[in-house]
Amino acid sequence: MLLEEFISKLEGEFDDMPKGTLQPDTDYRSIKGWSSMHALIIIAFVDINFNITLNGSDLKATKTVSDLYNLVQQKRPA
Amino acid sequence: MGLSLDKLSIHLPSQVLTNEMLAKEFKTDTADIFKRTGIETRYLSAKNETASDLAYQAAKKLLSENPGKKIDFLIFCSDCFDYIAPATSCILQDRLSLPQNTGCIDLPYGCSGFVYGLGIANGLLHSGMAETILFLTCDTSTKTLHPENLEQRSLFSDAAVAMLITKNNSPINSFVFGSDGSGALDLYIEGSAFRKPQDDNFKRETGLPYGQMVMNGTNVFSFALRTVPPMINDTLKKSGIAFDEIDLFVFHQANGFLLETLRKKMNIPKEKFYTNLKDYGNTVASSIPLALYTAEQEKVLKKGMKVLVAGFGVGNSWGATIINY
Question: Domains along chain A?
Fold first, then answer.
């Protein structure tokens, strides 16, 4: 999955998020109304789409949407 | 020979906590609380009402509905015992007027406790040590929630379930159990016993006499996603039963979003995935048997069904088996 598709699908997971809200350099924790629920949505999204289970520490190590995408790529089996 | 679990009674505290009440207190909206949890109503034990008080009521009802049963063992699964010692099950033996040759076991487990209790019951029945087991589950976790913690207060709920377990003619149950203590402090009750006792600051800041629940929701969520699917596969494999042969999946009623994510991940059809979270909340060790009870009341669960039950949570611990209902 390319970064653009990753972003588009992730946006679809958040209720009422206008298309284009997330950009590669968006600090995803700064999105309006961010809460711990959003972290769970990200973990569920990555788990279901990539079969990779992120934990709290994994998320803490990322800041932007691009970081998140790169983390998933790193964790994908070779 | 398998085990039979076809007699259940429940007892709920009289006080309820609705989304409207929480929304008013926390100045948020009910839809948001429901979206985060999948829960509308929770039950709260009264100030001086312990888990054993609630379990006693459920057991009294069950025994009056099934008179003349000789109880060989009483297992009480809870994280909220009357005392560190003696075993609360001994106190319940006396309160329930069970004979003095009743063996009593406290099982200090939470979300996975129902399956652990079934496993112990299975061992007692098949070793010939018992013919009938009274199994009680109850937690009063709401007493350990900080009043300002909306995340926890919108999830947890108190309820008791009493069950009679006997042998039956179905195939012997296969169990899968597991533990990962490295995540123990992702969900625990701080200030509840010897390791981290309460000091004056804790008492002043929390006002929680039994300790305070501490939960890393993100890690607990990840733990469940990582652990539950392989546990289900292992249980099916060990039992020699195909995924499609399971009539109903009843998981620990943790929270709505987690259950739906697990269901999607494992491709479990909606009609085979029972939840009652909306009306009862997360009742910890009671959540699976309470779901079995309500599923039967709603005629979703019927005699002869193969039911895969899976508990997971505090420990971290997990357990699953298939009940021939």
Answer: 3-75 (1.10.1200.10)
Residues 6+ apart with CB under 8 A from B13: B43, B44, B45, B46, B49, B54, B158, B159
Secondary structure (3-state) at A20:
coil
Q: To the nearest whole percent, how much of chain B has pLDDT over 90? A: 91
Q: Considering chain B, what is the average pLDDT of its residues?
A: 95
Residue B30's nearest CA partner among B150, B156, B158, B152 is: B150
Neighbours of A48 (CB within 10 A): 14
User: Position B203: which residue type?
Assistant: K
Scanning the structure block, which residue is given the tokens 């459920």? Answer: B58
Which of B80, B122, B173, B252 is flagged as catalytic? B252
Q: What is the 3-state secondary structure (H, E, C) of A34-78?
A: CCHHHHHHHHHHHHHHHCCCCCHHHHHCCCEHHHHHHHHHHHCCC
What is the three-class DSSP state of B237?
Answer: helix
The confidence score (pLDDT) of residue B6 equals 76
**Residues of chain B with C-beta less than 8 angstroms from the C-beta of A41:** 257
Is B265 in CB contact (< 8 Å) with chain A? yes
What pLDDT score was predicted for residue B1? 65
CB B206 within 8 A of CB B291: no
Mean predicted confidence (pLDDT) in B53-63: 98
CA torsion angle B17 B19 B21 B27 (round to 10):
140
Which domains are delineated in chain B? 2-168 (3.40.47.10), 175-324 (3.40.47.10)
**Helix, strand or coil, per DSSP, at residue B164:** strand
Q: Nearest CB to B225: which of A37, A41, A43?
A: A43
